[in-house]
Amino acid sequence: MLEINLQLELHSPDARHTVVLRCPDQPSALSWFSAMHSVTSTLAQQALAEVIQNTARTGVAGSKEIRHLGWLAGKTESEKESWRPVLVVVTEKDLLLYDSLPRGKEAWQSPAHTYPLLATRLVHSGPDRGSPHSGTELFFATRTGTRLGIETHLFRAETTKDLSMWTRHIVNGCHASAEMIKEVTTSCLYGVRNAGW
């Protein structure tokens, strides 16, 4: 028999340690998950307020204002099989990914990955169609245009409310970052000549 939703994983802020809690039945697992999720959501809001206060002068990785932050499970196209905890921060201009919780102002200035919201699009949100438990796992995917091509990331949220909040912050961030841009210059090929537009 396949055991579904009987285990909870807790990761340390530095992402070095994991504790797996196994519950005797699904109602117990759901009760523990709900209690821990409620507490961590409250703590995340407190952490957001502290991070904003502590990085107000310097910003976070070049962006002035944090819109949202939290932990998600994430993977890229190259990591098809493995999920890893990732701290995701939406700022006024960027989507920042951290492998662990930054300690100090300098660490906030050095995310593992920075993706400009202007070049990022939400391309999927909802249950994963290929999931064996379709409807129970909530995903969203982003695509970002980079100098090396398109990068796709898949993120897993824990609740429908979390999924809705993340997708709203990313879509609104993409729109707001586009509104901040007054002028865009790009090169293109017209006929056989290069022209800057």
Automatic annotation (TrEMBL):
Coiled coil: none
Domain PH: start-end pairs: 1-41, 65-175
InterPro entries per UniProt: PH-like_dom_sf, PH_domain, PHsplit_syntrophin, Syntrophin
Pfam families cross-referenced by the UniProt entry: PH, PH_17
Residues of the signal peptide: none
Top-level taxon of the source organism: Eukaryota
Protein name per its UniProtKB record: Beta-1-syntrophin
Gene Ontology cellular-component annotations: dystrophin-associated glycoprotein complex; synapse
Recorded GO MF terms: structural molecule activity
Gene3D superfamilies in the cross-refs: Pleckstrin-homology domain (PH domain)/Phosphotyrosine-binding domain (PTB)
